[in-house]
Automatic annotation (TrEMBL):
Pfam families: CTP_transf_like
Protein name: Cytidyltransferase-like domain-containing protein
GO BP terms: NAD+ biosynthetic process
Highest taxon, organism lineage: Eukaryota
GO molecular function: nicotinamide-nucleotide adenylyltransferase activity; nicotinate-nucleotide adenylyltransferase activity
InterPro entries according to UniProt: Cyt_trans-like (IPR004821), Euk_NMN_adenylyltrnsfrase (IPR051182), Rossmann-like_a/b/a_fold (IPR014729)
Start and end residues of each Cytidyltransferase-like domain: 34-223
Amino acid sequence: MSEIHSERTTDLSILYANLKLRSNSLENVVLIKTGSMNPIHRSHVSNMVRTKKYLERACNFNVIGGYLSPTHDEYVYGKLSNELISGEHRIEMCRKAIEEAGQQHWLSVDMAECMAPGFVHLVSVAHSLQQFINQHLNLPKPVRVIYVAGLDLFNRCYGMGTLRKSPLGGVAVVYRLGQNNSVLKSTNAMNDPRVFYVCDNDDEMDTSSSESEDISSTLIRKRLKDNENCDDLTFKSVLDHMKKVSSKDC
């Protein structure tokens, strides 16, 4: 696999800054979440924050950074056709969402997928990021890269098994109380030391009632078509950017 990450696509400054701020006796971890993010919604960000808090509290990890990685236009167009928001704009909306959420001290947008010549599978994205980070940081103990996934993706994607086998990898599965526990157990990964189960109800985050429901980019697009309010689903800066893009296309 050729490495898709470079200093042009992936900002390492947050990792360097957080390494200086935190104890070097703990295992350093970087999170990554891929997906269409067409557009990004509140759960994309909140699930990263929840995972960071859980891994630091329950696993004693030192989470030095996290990346939101919008998927390549080729894949998104195949799924959504003319509903595709170009990678350029999805990257910008991710930046705006991170800033509005106040998470820019540790979260960043990884442009490697969007800027690749074509679609790259999530396993290759995670492995390339891991290689890139460790080549540049060159720490005595390598940085672990953990992929953040929802329960549905974890159960249906064959690549999750590959991520679980990597000695420097792992998967954080974000699930919600009320989801079918038998589905959770059916993954046969409950005792896997590289799988971390993060309950999205088990934290102190201030969430609106809508976050107990399913938030999706599909729902955002549907509401916008119906001229309905989406403030509970995504960020104002994201909606403002979508309006600006839409007005230019008219």
